[in-house]
Amino acid sequence: MKRKLDANDVPSAEANEGTEHKNIDNAEDFESLNLDPRLRQALVKVKFSKPTPVQIKAIPLALEGKDILARAKTGSGKTAAYVLPILQTILQKKATDPSLKATTGLILVPTRELAEQVQKSIATFAAFCGKDVRSVNLTQKVSDAVQRSMLADFPDIVVSTPARVLANLGTSALSLENLTHFVIDEADLVLSYGYEDDINALSKAIPRGVQTFLMSATLTAEVETLKGLFCRSPVVLKLEEKDDRSADISQFVVKCAEDEKFLLTYVIFKLHLIKGKVILFVGDIDRCYRLKLFLEQFGIKSCVLNSELPANSRIHVVEEFNKGVYDIIIAADEQEVMGTSTQSKKTKEAAEEDQPSSDDEEETTNAPNRPDKRRKLSTKGKDYGISRGIDFQNVACVLNFDLPTTSKSYTHRIGRTGRGGKSGMALSFVVPAEKFGKHKPTSVPTAKRDEAVLSKIVKRQSKLGHEVKPYHFEMSQVDAFRYRMSDALRAVTRLAIQEARAREIRQELVKSEKLKRHFEENPEELKQLRHDGELRAARIQPHLKHIPEYLMPSKGKRGISNEEVGYVGFRKTSENRIRKARDKNRGKGKNVRKSIGGRKVDPLKTFNRARK
C-alpha cells in the first residue's frame, strides 16, 4: 500500500534529514525488531543472532515507511537492512489478501554479480515463507521470451540493473504501477558504471510516494544526485562504523623494487608465510596473467578474476573461492571489471577519461562544480570494481600487489578481510620513486605515484584509528631465491601472456555455457569445474616447483622477517598424527621393531626357538 501524499506531493509521514529515531539503538537482537516469525526462523538458520548497526537503525525506520539514505561500509549488513523490511511488508499484505499478485519491490544494483548476491539473500531470508514471496533476477542471461514469462506471474520483488529494467518496461513485460519499495544498492557506483541515462529515464517511471532506500559505502555527488531524483526528505544515516576501530586487520607495507614484488610473492606463498585465502589486487588484466603464469612456474595454483571473463564464470569463481575450493584469487581491480557486458563500453570510456585527483577529499567536494557531466561521473578511478559490492567470505589476507590509486580504494580493498569479527591482514607493495622504472618488464605506470598515495593512505587510516606499519623482510635471506624468480619471469614473455589470456577466455566461455545450461540441472557436477588450472602458455620449468634444502633460510621462516605479524589463519593447521606416523614408517618394513635399548633389530635374526 502506497503512502499518502499531501497537496504538495510530499509523504505525510516524513522525517527530517539526519534525524535520529527514538529507541532505534535499543534493538539488541532481531526479536526486538518485531519481524515476522518466518523471517526470524530464517535468521536463526543462517545464525544471524545480533543485528549490525545499520540494521538496528534502518529496519525500524523502514517499517515506519520512511525513506532512508544509509552510508555504511561494504560487509556491514546493508542488504538485510532493506530486504527484511520489504519482506515484512509483503508478508503483511499477503496475510490480509492471499491472492494479491503485484510487483511491489524493485532493487537496482550496478552489476550482475551483485544482483546474484541480492537474489540469494532474498531466497535465504524468505526460505520459510513458502509461495508468499517470489523474486526474479533480471540480469540472468536468458532470452526475452523467458524473461517475459518470468515477469508474467508478477513476482513480488525484481532485482536488476537499470538497463534491464528499462528494457522490460519498454516491452511492457514489467509493470511498476503497484510499486511500494524502491532500492538502489551501491548507489555511489550506479552512475559511475554508465547508467546515467537509464536512471534519468527510471526517475520518470517510478510512481510517486514509493518508499526509497539508497544504500552506499560513501556519500558522493552521485548519491546526492540520486537522492534528489528519488527521495523525499529521507532519514540520512551516517554510521560511524564503530566496528571499524575494533576490526582486527593488521596493515603492513613493504617498500621494494618492481621485480621484487614477484620475488616476495613467490617466497610468501612457497614458504606458506600466509595461511588461508588471499586476494591479490593488480592494476590491469595483463598483470593478472603475468602473475598467474609466474606462480605456475613454482606449482602455485591461482585463479583469475577480470572483466574479460564471462559473467557466469566470474560468479562461479567467487562462489568456489568462498567455499574454499581454491585459496588464491588474482583480481584486476578496474572499474569495469564486474560490469555487465552491455555497459562495459560506457564504463571503459569513462575510465579512459579518469585522472586521479590531487587529494581524495576533493573528489566529492569539487565534483558538483565541474561543467562536464561525463568528467564528473568518471572521478572514480579504475581501481573501483572487485573491491566493492562483491561478497568475498573468510578472506585471510588482502595483498596489494599493485597499490591502488586512491586511499578510498585502499580502504575498500582491505575491507575484504577482517570481517565478521575475524582477524585479517593487509599487505601492500610500494615502489619507491628511485626504484620506479628500473625493471621495464614488470613496471606499471601507476607505481610512479606509490609513495604519494601511501602518504594519503597512512593519513586516512590514522583518522580511522588504524596504523599502517612497515613490514621488514630480511632480503639477505630472500636473495637465494632471486635467480629462480628471474628464471620464471624470463619464461613469462609478452607473447605467453597474450596466449594465456586468449586461452583462458576460450576455456571460460566453454565453462560458462556449461554453467548456463547443463549445471543448472546437475548442481553436483559443479564441484568438478575449477578455475585455477594451469594455463601452460609459458615455458615450463619443473625444477622450480621444488625448493632444495640449501635455498632455505638458515633460521627457517623466522629468518625472513624480523617481526611477528601475529596473524592466525582461518584454516586448521593441526596435523593428523596417525597419517603422519604412517607416512614416517612407510618403506621401513613391517617386521622392523625397536628393542628395549632403542636399536633397530630384525625379529627373524633374534628369534629364539625353545629347546626340548
From TrEMBL:
Q: Please give the InterPro entries that the UniProt record associates with this protein.
A: DEAD/DEAH_box_helicase_dom, DEAD_box_RNA_helicase, Helicase_ATP-bd, Helicase_C-like, P-loop_NTPase, RNA_helicase_DEAD_Q_motif
EC number(s) recorded for this UniProt protein? 3.6.4.13
- Location of the region described as Disordered in the Swiss-Prot/TrEMBL record: 1-27, 340-380, 580-612
Task: Please indicate if the UniProt record lists Cell division as a keyword.
Answer: no
Q: Keywords of this protein's UniProt record, alphabetized?
A: ATP-binding, Coiled coil, Helicase, Hydrolase, Nucleotide-binding, Nucleus, Ribosome biogenesis, RNA-binding
**Which residue windows are coiled coil?**
495-522
Comp. bias intervals (Basic residues): 580-597
Q: Which reaction does it catalyse?
A: ATP + H2O = ADP + phosphate + H(+)
Q: Where is the DEAD-box RNA helicase Q domain?
A: 28-56
For bias type Acidic residues, the affected ranges are 351-364
Q: Where is this motif: Q motif?
A: 28-56
Q: Which family does it belong to?
A: Belongs to the DEAD box helicase family. DDX56/DBP9 subfamily.
Question: What role is this protein assigned?
Answer: ATP-binding RNA helicase involved in the biogenesis of 60S ribosomal subunits and is required for the normal formation of 25S and 5.8S rRNAs.
> What's this protein's name?
RNA helicase
The organism is: Aspergillus cavernicola
